[in-house]
Amino acid sequence: TGIVLGGTKKLVGDAIGKYTDEKAFKYELYAAEWNTGVQDIVQGAKLETVTNLADGSFAFGELNFDKIGAYRYIIREYIPDNTDKLMNYDVSVYQVEVDVTDDLKGGLNAVAKVTKIDGDGNRTEVSASGIVFTNVYDPEPISIELGGKKNYNMNLPADKFSFELYQALKDDKGNINAIGSPVLTAPNDKN
Fold first, then answer.
1. Which of 123, 147, 163, 165 gives 184 a disulfide partner, CB atoms 3.0 to 4.6 angstroms apart?
2. Each residue of 137-184: pLDDT tens digit?
3. pLDDT digits (tens, 9 = 90+) for 114-128
4. CA–CA gap between residue 60 and residue 47 (Å, rounded)
5. Which residues make beta-bridge pairs with 62?
6. Mind giving me the DSSP string for the chain?
7. Cα 104 from Cα 25, distance rounded (Å)
């Protein structure tokens, strides 16, 4: 009998176009063992490295079992040495315990139990479909100065006109629409 392990990449922040490509991230599957000295699973040999698909999902090749028993694995995101300083990678590790039992019909049954260990060491039981690595893209803020010129046929006194700046979004037809109240109002200068 076999089982396929995989998960999903979730991006937080403005990473559209930069990190949404297929194969933008790598994930590693390791064999693991129970260490009674630390009462925990410890990482063993790397079995496989895969990349994400365009939808953010990833999957390792099928793991096949021909004996009853408990099999242990670790899944982690590969974090390159030369990372983008604006991308905060998820350092969580997922411990997977696959329990292979006799199905009493001449075959085997495999069930995975998954534990997420976050960067602070907190443990959470998740479903096998709940393996999610969340990266946060945190660009440095920028500022811009906007301005304009009012054409007026005579000398323009200061504060004769005011100009408003609105937040705007494109709708599904590509039209740009102002949203809500002005975020900034400024008067004209003297001409």
1. 165
2. 877 777 888 777 777 777 878 888 888 888 877 777 878 877 777 888
3. 999 999 989 999 998
4. 9
5. none
6. -EE--EEEEEEESS-TTTS-STTSSEEEEEEEEEETTTTEEEEEEEEEEEE--TTSEEEPPPEE--S-EEEEEEEEEE--TT--TTEE----EEEEEEEEEE-SSSSEEEEEEEEEE-TT--EEEE-GGG-EEEEEE-PPP-----------SS---TTSSEEEEEEEEE-TTS-EEEEEEEEEEEEPPP-
7. 41
Identity (one letter) of the amino acid at 35?
Answer: N
Token output for 103: 């199905």
One-letter amino acid of 84: D
